[in-house]
Specification:
Elements lengths: L12 H14 L6 H8 L3 H5 L4 H21 L3 H7 L4 H7 L4 E5 L6 E5 L9 H8 L3 H38 L4 H51 L2 H6 L2 H43 L1 H48 L1 H6 L3 H35 L5 E2 L13 H5 L1 E2 L4 H17 L5 H42 L22 E9 L7 E10 L4 E6 L5 H8 L7 E6 L2 E2 L5 H8 E5 L9 H6 L7 H10 L3 H6 L17 H13 L5 E5 L7 H15 L3 E5 L11 E6 L2 E6 L1 H7 L2 H14 L1
Parallel strand pairs: 7-12, 7-13, 10-11, 11-12
Antiparallel strand pairs: 1-2, 3-4, 5-6, 5-8, 8-9, 13-14
Helix pairs in contact: 1-4, 6-17, 8-9, 8-11, 8-17, 9-11, 9-17, 11-12, 11-17, 12-14, 12-16, 12-17, 16-17, 21-23, 23-24
Bound molecules: adenosine-5'-triphosphate.
The site of adenosine-5'-triphosphate (ATP) has 14 residues, from α18.
Length: about 725
């Protein structure tokens, strides 16, 4: 098992490269993989099957990391038994080895190094918080599971009684067979019935507990993620976060349920059946104690081989799904480049591979089944319980698994030794029957326990990943702090001596002793070269980040002392270049700016934003659903809905971050009209690329190298003949080309 940051190394060939890319990207400038990655393209491997040297290097590193990691996960079974649960937390950490690559400065190649990424601990007290509300149901489930296991121990003994009646009747042929057999038979049937009821009871309760714990975890984790700073999202990929919400919690839930039901049952049965075995025949028990571990070991070895095959087959299915997912998710790009055929080829290649691997798995299971059948004594179990997922068509091999491999040995051995004991009257035939059934139960339980260890490790690993984010505290708190009453808020903003580096790039100072004042109800435009830090200024005003040094003030108060949800929710309206809409109705999207707004307020905001006319031209009007991220609307329409969304809260300060730069001339004109109306009577910060759009601003500040180097009105700055007039000249020249 590999943990490459968030353990999803092995999904698709491209995504393997991407995982490496993300990991290297995370660690900042010293990683050079991004250049390799971009020059080769993410699909180079899967689509051409002749990977470019760069991608093949990434790929071979990935594979090496995978091999390295998977060998670590194959802990010898015996060791697991010896060390037991005490090592589980540690082994969970061991499994978290992270492989990543680093640029070798001397020869410019990638070398594999060991990660120093801290591995999260499993926090039992957090688990307790989730389990506490379900404690009653959990205790009931444990009691029922325990009861079912105890009854299971009784079954071999009752079977023995039954066989003794049959044997006596055969031997002596006296008495009434029916009345003699009735008692033990009814007892046995009753026992099976009660055991069935107990089993159903604990499964119902456990699934209730598991589902509720998982649902609570999901809600709490989601709430915790939403609380995190923007810097957190800079450092973590969305896919990884979603994975913690879905796959990790799912894995944890399965392990939780399995460990309690299966673990409790297997341990109780093993101990109970061993006691029964000892009571029935201490001599035969001695023999079993010597032989059984070898048989369980052999069964577990073959089982682990099949599980490995199964895991590889599943990963291959995931690879194929990944290719389809990527192609369908980016269907517009695929179509725009007429790449349908190539995507189909990539998908077909991965699907064929998965087909081949599943066929191999089917063959492996078939051989195992054959060997087990030859072993005479069968215990039929579900594959899935043992972590083997088989997609093979043949139901006779996909539904059943005979785990106690080489049973013939123990069965024949027991019958041979038991027969000797029967002939010397040391044992009855019923005892032999009881012994055989009880020893099978022990064997099956031990096999389950060995597999459960792996499940516990996986559960602890995924639980630790979930809990890591649950206990994470944001540095910028959403609530708490003061509010300025609406009637006394002027909307003056001061950036005083701000220095700032993004947390993901601490060495790179974006703003250096930056100073700027936004006077109340005035429009200030910030212009400058791309990457000069203009959007960063807006991000600091929104408090997406706090400055490294210096202070941002609102009406003379440090914004760090103000209530952030009030600041973002009521004071600042933010409109950026690529407005993101939610896949709900237009009405809901505009209301996102003020959840308690009436329909009339929504319509009024839409009118201010020049959006009312086009909205009412749709058949469903304000109830029109806008599709995923607003895909069914044009750029200009999306932007006007975003403006309405910002205006509905009637903000005192409006931040426009390149709000019209992605639009064509006609859309820009309509949106600009809406913006001109929207900015009246508010403090406005405009971040602009196209200098033509900000010529009417009260103040234009030119940024260079992280600070303001020129400031004035359009005409003043032109008169200076400095950087601003240079920018104007350059844009004019570009426009004429
Ligand atoms: N989230 C981030 N994490 C790390 N660095 C960032 C982040 N956002 C921006 N940067 C870096 O900060 C610098 C300033 O970026 P910013 O987006 O503020 O520039 P800009 O002037 O708005 O550029 P443009 O006009 O191209 O939008 C750039 O070097 C950029 O790479």
């Amino acid at each position: 098992m590999i943990q490459l940051l968030c353990c999803r190394l092995s999904t698709t060939a491209p995504s393997q490269s991407r995982s490496f890319y993300s990991l290297c990207n995370k660690t900042g400038d010293k990683w050079k993989l991004s250049r390799l990655y971009t020059s080769s393209g993410p699909r180079a491997y899967s689509s051409s099957q002749q990977p470019s040297s760069a991608v093949s290097r990434i790929w071979s590193l990935t594979q090496r990391a995978f091999r390295h990691s998977s060998t670590r996960s194959n802990n010898p079974l015996g060791l697991k038994f010896l060390l037991g649960p005490a090592v589980l937390t540690v082994s969970a950490r061991l499994l978290f080895h992270v492989a990543y690559c680093k640029a070798d400065k001397n020869n410019n190649t990638l070398v594999e190094v060991t990660a120093k990424v801290p591995i999260p601990d499993f926090k039992w007290h957090i688990l307790w918080e989730f389990v506490k509300p379900q404690l009653f149901a959990l205790v009931c489930a444990v009691v029922l599971a325990f009861g079912a296991a105890i009854l299971n121990i009784q079954i071999p003994l009752m079977l023995g009684d039954l066989v003794n009646v049959v044997a006596r009747h055969l031997r002596e042929n006296t008495g009434n067979y029916i009345s003699e057999i009735q008692g033990p038979a009814l007892k046995l049937l009753g026992l099976y019935g009660v055991q069935g009821l107990l089993t159903s009871g604990y499964i119902i309760l456990l699934s209730r507990v598991g589902e509720r714990v998982a649902a609570d975890m999901r809600k709490t984790l989601f709430a915790s993620l939403l609380r995190q700073d923007v810097a957190f999202f800079d450092a973590n990929k969305t896919g990884q976060l979603v994975n913690r919400l879905t796959a990790d919690i799912q894995e944890f839930k399965s392990s939780f349920k399995l460990v309690i039901s299966q673990g409790l049952r297997s341990i109780t049965q093993t101990i109970g059946c061993f006691v029964s075995l000892y009571i029935i025949s201490p001599k035969l028990t001695g023999l079993t104690v010597i032989v059984l571990p070898c048989l369980v070991g052999a069964g577990a070895l073959i089982g682990s081989f099949l599980r490995k095959l199964s895991r590889l087959a599943q990963e291959q299915v995931a690879k194929a799904t990944g290719v389809a997912d990527e192609a369908l998710g980016n269907v517009r790009t695929v179509k725009a480049f007429a790449m349908e055929e190539r995507e189909l080829q990539s998908y077909a290649y991965e699907v064929d591979k998965s087909c081949e691997m599943n066929e191999n798995l089917g063959t492996g299971i078939a051989i195992f089944q054959g060997l087990s059948n030859m072993a005479l004594n069968c215990e039929c179990l579900h594959y899935e319980r043992f972590g083997i997922h088989c997609d093979a068509e043949c139901c006779c091999i996909s539904d059943l698994l005979i785990i106690p491999f080489l049973n013939a040995g123990i069965v024949l051995g027991t019958i041979f030794a038991g027969g000797t004991l029967i002939s010397s009257n040391e044992m009855s035939p019923g005892d032999l029957m009881s012994f055989l059934v009880a020893s099978q139960t022990v064997q099956r339980s031990l096999a389950s326990i060995s597999i459960l260890f792996g499940q516990v490790v996986r559960g602890i690993s995924s639980g630790a990943r979930v809990f890591e984010y649950l206990s994470l505290q944001p540095t910028i708190l959403l609530c708490g702090g003061g509010r300025i009453p609406y009637h006394s808020l002027t909307g003056r903003v001061d950036f005083l001596n701000i220095s700032f580096s993004y947390p993901t790039r601490p060495g790179h100072e974006v703003l250096k002793k930056f100073n700027l004042t936004l006077p109340p109800c005035k429009t200030v435009a910030v212009v400058g070269e791309s990457g000069g830090g203009k959007s960063t200024v807006a991000a600091l005003l929104e408090r997406f980040y706090d400055p490294t040094s210096g202070v941002v003030m609102l009406d003379g108060l440090d914004i760090r002392t103000l209530d952030l949800s009030w600041l973002r929710g009521q004071v600042i309206g933010f409109i950026n270049q690529e407005p993101v809409l939610f896949g709900s109705s237009i009405m809901e999207n505009i209301r996102f700016g003020k959840p308690d707004a009436t329909d009339a307020e929504v319509i009024s905001a839409a009118k201010q934003a020049n959006a009312h006319r086009f909205i009412t031209s749709f058949p469903d009007g304000y109830n029109t659903t806008v599709g995923e991220r607003g895909v069914t609307l044009s750029g200009g329409q999306k932007q006007r809905i975003a403006i309405a969304r910002a205006l509905i809260k009637n903000p005192s300060i409006l931040v426009l971050d390149e709000a019209t730069s992605a639009l064509d001339a006609e859309s820009e004109r309509v949106v600009q009209e809406a913006l001109d109306r929207a900015t009246r009577g508010r403090t406005v910060l405009i971040i602009a690329h196209r200098l033509s759009t900000i010529q009417g601003a009260d103040l234009i500040c030119v940024m260079s190298n992280g600070r303001v180097v020129e400031a004035g009105t359009h005409l003043e700055l032109l008169g200076k003949g400095g950087l601003y007039s240079d920018l104007i000249r350059r844009q004019k020249a570009e426009g004429q080309k």
